[in-house]
Structure formats: C-alpha cells, structure tokens
Amino acid sequence: MMAFRIAVAGVRLGVFDALADGPRTAKDLATVLSTDPHALELLLDALCSVGYLRHDGRTYANGVAAEPLRAGYRDIMLFWHILVGRLWEDLEESIRTGRPTVDFYTWMADRPETLAKFQDLQRVVVDWLARDIVEAVPLPAGATRLLDLGGGHGSFSVAYCQKYGDLSATVVDRPEVLVIAGETATAAGLSDRVTLHGADLRGEVEFRDQDAVLLFRMIHTFPADQARALIRGAADALRPGGKLIVLERYPDPDAGVVENAFSHCFALNLHHTQGGRLHSPAELAAWIGEAGCTPPQRVVLKDSPSHVLLVASK
C-alpha cells in the first residue's frame, strides 16, 4: 500500500517525467519540480527502495518499473488510487453482507473529473484491443447497422465504422457517459454515422434488425440474472444471421501473475461497488445459446489472454 502511494506521489509531482531524459541530482530535481529538497530526497530514496528509481550515489534515474508511469498506465494508476482510496474504505462491509455499499456509476456521475479519468482509462484499454478485435471479427457481409450496448466511450463503434464504409452505429449507455462517445465520434469525423442513445441497460433492449450487436466489457456490471437477460435482449435485437460479439475479462492462469492478480482484484471491486461479477466463459456461452444464437466461438486475443472474446450468430 505504501509503495503504491509513493508511486502516485511521484506521478503527481512529475518525478518520472523529469527523469525521462536522463539522471539528475536530488537538488536539481527539487528545483525543477518546485519541492522541498529534503522531503523530495526522502521520496526519491523510497522510490528507489521499491524499484521505481535507481540511485548511483549521486544522481537518480528511472528504473524499469517507472516506464509505465510515463505512458498510458499513469492515468490508470491515478484513477485506481482515487477509487480505492474513496470507495474501499468500507470493503469489509460488502464482504460481510454480500451486497455493494455504493453505486459506482452514481458516485462517478457526481464527479465529472473522476468520470473523465475513468473514460481515459477505458480508452487506453480500448486502443490496445480495438484493432485486433476489428481485424479478428469481421461483420456480416453488407452490414449497415451496429448496436453497441454499454459502449460509452464509443471507440469500438468508431473502429468498426472506420473499417466498414457503409456502417452506422448506435451507442447505448448512460447520458453522462455518452458525452465521451460524442467526442470520440467527432474527433474521428464520424458524428454523422454514430448515433448516441441514452438508456438504462437494466431495461428492455428496444432495437431490432441489427447486423451486429456488441457487448464489450460491460456484462460484468450486472449479477447473473440481469446479465443473462441483457444477453437475451442483445440477441433479440439481431436480424437473422446477425452477429453477437461479447468481450469480457476472466482470470486465466496463462495470463501471468500480474494480469491474474488484477482480474481477481477487479472482481472484488465489481462486487463491492456495483454488485456485479466476472462471469465465466462457460456461463456466457450457455446464456448466448439460450438466447437463440449458435454456440459461440472463442477468439483468442494474443496480447490479452485474460479477455474472453465470444462470437455467435442468430
């Protein structure tokens, strides 16, 4: 916990960015960062002790572990620091009762800056996955209608529209989240082909005759009964021959220690803040079949074995 906190302090103060071009003395860093020299040296030594920095007796330099903190993972760390610090204080209570103690999305809706950080985090993950998914999972021939349920950031819809010139997409999510999707579509020059529809996904899916429906990284928001109903609603929205494409996270021994650890901690956070959970590939496949689709095929994502990508047809 202390190691995580000092890394956050280093990110916020700009330590890792200040060392990007090479080693510097503590005195030099204190001047550049406008900090107290003695206090900064205490932080630098602490960062060295846990591997984020290196010290040769005179100067400090970034260690191997510091590299992610200078890239997209910096925003991920800052978001999780806010979430764990604010929402996990009563973690034991949700363990005792089996019920969440807070509504994650309601909490974020009242905090626009935190919501923006969350969407930035989502974008980092999406940018990492979108190209592989769009190439690995083609849409049905002649597809013109794509429904993206819970696709608030809009990035997957934009990626598919960029690949298929005749495709239009509808992104369904909470109104406060769809602001980000609108920005994504506008930035890509696709605002005329990406429609935003505000709705609570716990209700009925009202769309029909879609060529493809995406359920990407959002089924875990719901407990089993609601997740099952959502998959059925997504299948009902498809035309005959349309594709249902599901992307979820689930622990996988082949994913490595760090990925697996995050999956388990993520599952705990889902329980504590949303009452959701990570549904197994077998559960998802069964619900997809019950909804009237073909047995789903699992597409392996080589860069992220902890993500489960399932594709079925109606």
Automatic annotation (TrEMBL):
SUPFAM superfamilies associated with the record: S-adenosyl-L-methionine-dependent methyltransferases, Winged helix' DNA-binding domain
GO terms of biological process kind: methylation
Query: Which Pfam families does this chain map to?
Result: Dimerisation (PF08100), Methyltransf_2 (PF00891)
Q: Which domain of life is it from?
A: Bacteria
Q: Which InterPro entries did the record assign?
A: COMT-like, COMT_C, COMT_dimerisation, SAM-dependent_MTases_sf, WH-like_DNA-bd_sf, WH_DNA-bd_sf
**Residue span, O-methyltransferase dimerisation domain:** 9-66
- Domain named O-methyltransferase C-terminal: residues: 88-292
Under the heading CDD domains, the entry gives: AdoMet_MTases
- Give this protein's Gene Ontology molecular function annotations: O-methyltransferase activity; protein dimerization activity
Q: What is this protein called?
A: Hydroxyindole O-methyltransferase
Source organism per entry reads: Sinosporangium siamense
